[in-house]
Amino acid sequence: MKKNPLLKIALTHLFSKKRQTIVAMLGVTFGIAIFIFQAGLMSGFQAFFIEETVNTTANIRIFNEAAKNRPSILDKINTQKDHWNIVQNQKPKDEQTKIKNGYQIISILENDPRVAGVSPFLGSQAIFKVGIAQIAGRVSGVDIVKENILFNVSKNMRQGDITKLETIPNGIILGDGLADLLGAKINDNISVVSPLGVNLDMKIVGINHSGLTDVDKSRAYINIRNAQKLLQVDGSYITDINIKLKDFSLSEELAKFYNSKFGFRSVDWKEANASVFSVFKIQNMVTYLIIVSILVVSGFGIFNILMMIIYEKMPDIAILKAIGYKDRDIKIIFLTESLIIGTFGGLLGLLVGFLMQKIVGNIRMDIKGFVSMEYLHFNSTPGFYLFAFVFGLITTAVAGYMPARKAAKVDAIDIIRSK
Amino acid sequence: MSTPAIIKTKDLDKYFHDPVEFQALKNINIQIDQGEFVSIVGSSGSGKSTLLYVLSTLDTDYTGHIYFDGDDLSLKSKNELAEIRNQKIGFVFQFHYLLPEFTVLENICLPAAKLAKYKEEEYIERAYQKLDLLGLRDQALKKANKLSGGQQQRVAIARALINDPKIIFCDEPTGNLDSKNSQNVFEIFKELKEKFNQSIVVVTHDNEFAMKTDRIITLRDGEVI
Questions:
Q1: Given an 8 Å threshold on Cβ–Cβ distance, is A316 in contact with B99?
Q2: In chain A, which end has fewer C-beta atoms inside a 10 angstrom radius, N or C?
């Protein structure tokens, strides 16, 4: 006799229904494997995307929000309470989108010990022309050395060298998608036309690949002086200040601080990418819903097989009760059965999920969508495995509880009488 | 014999409510002494099996009192009753109720494993003693469903004996057996009573069997006559 008769009885029941037991186990396996795979894929992708975003978005961006609603002049003069002031078609006028004293602000920021780098920025719409090929895009006027500290531009260079933007007076670095669209190669000359009609002939000194497809298809880096030329503004004119912090988790806090200190709008990277994060939230919700429904279905499988066993083993339950086994013992037998199914199905699921990640993670995908990546990135933190396993066990325990309670309530005399 | 009563009932009534109100046991006042071999007889529907289940704590839906080994059963919880059944009561039913996938030895040890009074080696040794008593030692490691009907019933008796109960309740123990095996079972019970002073209560419609017991309790329409 094995030490624990309850465990032996439970195992005997499962072995007497091998096929159904295996099917019930595979239900759990499937649910857990999908969870591991899906959660790893989602969070891996999100982590990759956040990393890319953190690398390409400034921790804090300071800019002048000119289009904001402000009180009309009439409101300023006429403040009596019993009057209505109606001014229609109000336009911001005699204002510039530039940051006043931008370079002074930059030097203040550069002396802030929490700041790792500051980069001035002057952006504009532009049309790129090579012969008759015309593509609309954006030029980013930057100080490339400072920009490189913030966004590690040099790491993403496919061809050429960022320093040429400093050394060659009319150099331009194109995104690789944009270069493809134009059919332009490094050292080619292209024309850049600003919205004001200013035309600059520029020489391609580099091709850049940031990983964010939309950006690569539309953005070109030029020297900030050239950007000022395109927009016909003076040499102190900048529209944005991008800041990289030593600790990027302080972004939100410092953005508020700079906002009140300089009086210009300051947004941190999370706020700037708020729409993406809300998409992630929905994505995660959908993922978890799918997993939960798979596990619920496998829960039904377990419920099913236990009910079958109970109906078949009624006489065993009756005699166990007659010879002194308590209701609790009977409950333990059937809960053990469901937990055995859950444990083995779950462990197998962890393994299958792990293998699925490894196999799919090694297939070259060359995805060019929202972001571009060669391989899928999986997040395989132990936390997911633990969560999946525990969640699987809880599901099986819940699924097993009802049949177990039913078995415990079996009335021994009813069974014995009816034989 | 001035042996103390193992079971005594006082004004025991039992009703069935489904499908119609029906009084199955009427005002039962009986006493069974330690070491007594009693048979309960009566025609079909007279309430003899019902009485057995009530006396043996399986059925708790009654009014009146049952004193088992001095304790009032109506005051005991379900779990306490299960413990009493485990320690002091053995059961033999018409059908053997052995777990088919378990060996003979494992079946016999089930009540002992629950009791956990003895170590595993000890109760296995005791199980072999019971098998010797019933002449089944050589079958010990066979699966229960590989035995003949007579053998299975004897295994069921061995299982009832494993915890040395004070009383053994039997519901038609010979109902499925031929006369030779019935005689065999009777001899075993007699030996148990004489050797171990165990009380035995047998519900039977086998008059020949009943005649050989110490005392016959006859029921008619739920009343002792």
A1: yes
A2: C
